[in-house]
Design a protein that fits this description.
With 409 residues, this protein is of the alpha/beta class. The chain contains 13 helices and 14 strands. The chain has a single domain, classed as Alkaline Phosphatase, subunit A (3-Layer(aba) Sandwich). The longest helix is centred in the middle third of the chain and has 25 residues. The N terminus is likely disordered.
């Protein structure tokens, strides 16, 4: 049986189940988003886009933002420590890894906020648990679903929101995008959208199924199915009209940022983009692997920034970069570093007030070999929610968290 026949059969079965109010797979997920309503949060720029970059595996913050003026850094890392004369110095205390010349350029343009010693109370060194904590925005797990998903759920008090308001680019859907009411599409690649939409026969079959008889409640689901399908068709067609102009690398960051550029250029309905890259769990032979990852991120970030500047959209885009934890302050016997706690975050964009926020790392005041956190990551989320995408951080985060002043007035 050919793929097209399989797709038609699957859609036919899915459509029949949809009439029973239980449509499966991507169709059901997107249809649920159609009943979302507009934000009642703070007034914000309606064209603003939040891009969240997840560095999966636990990025080594101390070899990313390097305390080169602190001799204790070299005592703790006699082999892995980046020589002071190689560091891209940002001030008299700290600088960037030498592979991050792209980010250094943006920092000098005052477009990069570096938030130091970010973490949460009683840190967990498990990849899975700590990532869940960051994605749920809950160190104790007292709230359900993800922080972005909860933001979309709270939008259910206004009018309908486009099903492509938020999108994920990841091989696995991050917990941050899970929700009770909303269902956020997530793709390994934007090329997957064509496979989801199918061909003209698929579209005719869906519309035929959705125009059939049914109760008023069933009609709502049928209408939502078609609206979601229309949104995906529109996104597919919009993406065809633009090809990224920048010279992106052929690594995961380059490929990902090129696709993000396509979305920013063409999908005006998309306000949140979540992108994840792994490989940061550097227990052994860290130096080369970490250098390649940081270079890939930094180069792609600069290329992306230049592209959205050329498009006239750079004042509308803010990028937030995080990892589930940092690494231990000291190197291990395998030329790597083990799971740690606090680490820096980056917030990048034309609207950002560049510079450092929070105290510089104190390597003489550690807890079990880990940096102590000084800034709760939920402060960054609260600032992004309230001051960038018009959310209600106290409800989304189940508490009030002080804003960090990395955005202008």
């Amino acid at each position: 049986m050919g793929d097209s026949i399989s797709r038609r059969e699957l859609l036919y079965k899915g459509g029949m189940i949809a009439v029973g109010l239980a449509a499966p797979g991507w169709l059901s997920s997107l249809a649920k988003a159609d009943v979302l309503k507009r934000s009642v949060g703070n007034p914000i720029d309606p064209d603003g886009v939040l891009i969240v970059i997840q560095l999966s595996g636990g990025n080594d913050g101390l070899n990313t933002v390097i305390p080169y003026a602190d001799s204790q850094y070299y005592t703790l890392r006699p082999n892995l420590g980046i020589p002071a004369d190689k560091v891209l110095r940002l001030n008299e205390h700290v600088g960037l890894h030498p592979a991050m010349s792209g980010l250094e350029t943006l920092y000098k343009e005052k477009k990069v906020a570096i938030i130091q010693n970010v973490g949460y109370p009683r840190p967990n060194r498990s990849h899975f648990k700590s990532m869940d904590i960051w994605n749920q925005a809950s160190p104790t797990g007292e709230v359900a679903h993800g922080w972005i998903g909860r933001h979309l759920d709270l939008m259910a008090t206004g009018g309908p929101v486009n099903p492509v308001y938020a999108l994920g680019l990841s091989t696995e859907k991050p917990l941050a995008l899970s929700a009770e009411k909303a269902s956020i599409p997530c793709f390994a690649s934007l090329a997957d959208i064509q496979a989801m939409v199918g061909d003209a026969d698929t579209e005719r079959l869906l519309r035929s199924i959705s125009s059939g008889a049914g109760s008023s409640e069933e009609k709502v689901v049928q209408k939502a199915n078609v609206a979601a399908f229309d949104a995906m068709v529109a996104l597919r067609d919009q993406l065809k009209s633009y090809e990224a102009k920048g010279k992106y690398g052929n690594d995961r960051f380059g490929q990902g940022f090129a696709q993000i550029a396509q979305l920013v250029a063409t999908s005006s309905a998309t306000r949140v983009i979540y992108f994840s890259v792994g490989g940061f769990d550097t227990h052994a032979r860290q130096a080369d692997a970490h250098q390649n990852l940081l270079k890939g991120f930094s180069d792609a970030m600069l290329t992306f920034q230049r592209e959205i500047e050329a498009l006239g959209k750079s004042k509308k885009v803010m990028v937030v970069v995080f990892s589930e934890f940092g690494r231990r302050s000291y190197e291990n016997a395998s030329s790597g570093t083990d799971h740690g706690a606090a680490a820096p975050m980056f917030v990048i964009g034309d609207a950002v007030k560049g510079g450092f926020y929070g105290p510089k790392p104190n390597l003489m005041d550690l807890t079990d070999g880990d940096l102590k956190y000084a800034i709760d990551f939920r402060q960054v989320y609260a600032t992004a929610l309230d001051r960038w995408i018009g959310g209600e951080s106290e409800r989304v985060l189940a508490g009030k968290f002080e804003h960090i002043p990395f955005l202008g007035a």
